[in-house]
Amino acid sequence: MHARHDDELSDFLTSLSFSEDYLAAQTPEAARSLTSRLAASAPGTAQQIAFALGIDVRGDLAAVTAPTLVVAAAGDQFVAPEHSVELAVGIPGARLAAVRGGHAAVFEEPGRTLEILTGFLRDIHRSHPELSPTDTVRWPTAPGPRFLPTVPAPRHPHEC
Predict the structure, then answer these.
(1) Do 76 and 52 form a contact (C-beta atoms < 8 A)?
(2) Does the pTM of the predicted model rise above 0.85?
(3) How many Cβ atoms from other residues are within 10 Å of residue 121's Cβ?
(4) Pairing between strand 69-73 and 146-147?
(5) Where along the chain do its domains lie?
(6) Average pLDDT over residues 132-154
């Protein structure tokens, strides 16, 4: 669609980026606004998708030593929730949280997303108050991901 300059690319990206429930609750004007904002960000989309489809980092996950938070969106059509769970399971000590919404859940649930992110950063700071924001820290490893309070709560490790 991108290569042939299809006018419906923005509509398609909007439908993939946001959950059906969120889009259904929008006024026609608000939906058009979302679509027009995605149209402005479309350059590079094809390359980003090609890159994502051509890389497999699963073998590198165990080597990640930085504190890691994986946020899975229950309705994400770009990154399936089970892939977010796989990512969190593969990174030692990673934390996993779930939010409602689609790939753009930060817009759908900004308060919840901010709560998750700031809570994670606060925990890092509490664990290492002596560190500056540019210092590197190693998160204590634990068997499997540590699940944060989620909305909705994962019913099974592979179902967010």
Answers:
(1) no
(2) no
(3) 13
(4) unpaired
(5) 9-52, 59-147
(6) 48
User: What is the rounded CA–CA span in Å between residue 64 and residue 136?
Assistant: 12
Write the CA distances from 62 to 66, 80, 138, integer angstroms.
11, 21, 13
Q: For residues 128 and 55, give the distance between their C-alpha atoms in angstroms, rounded to a whole number.
A: 33
Extract the tokens encoding 138. 């190693």
pLDDT tens readout for residues 83-101 = 999 999 999 999 999 998 8
**Residue at token pair 């904002």:** 37
d(CA 143, CA 155): 18
- The confidence score (pLDDT) of residue 136 equals 54
- Residue 157: both structure tokens together: 């490790």
Closest CA to 45 of 103, 105, 107, 117: 103
With contact defined as beta carbons under 8 Å apart, do 67 and 135 qualify?
no
Q: Which among 141, 150, 156, 157 is positioned nearest to 66, based on CA atoms?
A: 141
User: Does the CA dihedral 96-97-102-107 come out positive or negative?
Assistant: negative
Structure tokens at 31: 């939906």
CA distance 154 to 21: 19
Contact by Cβ (8 Å): 78, 51: no
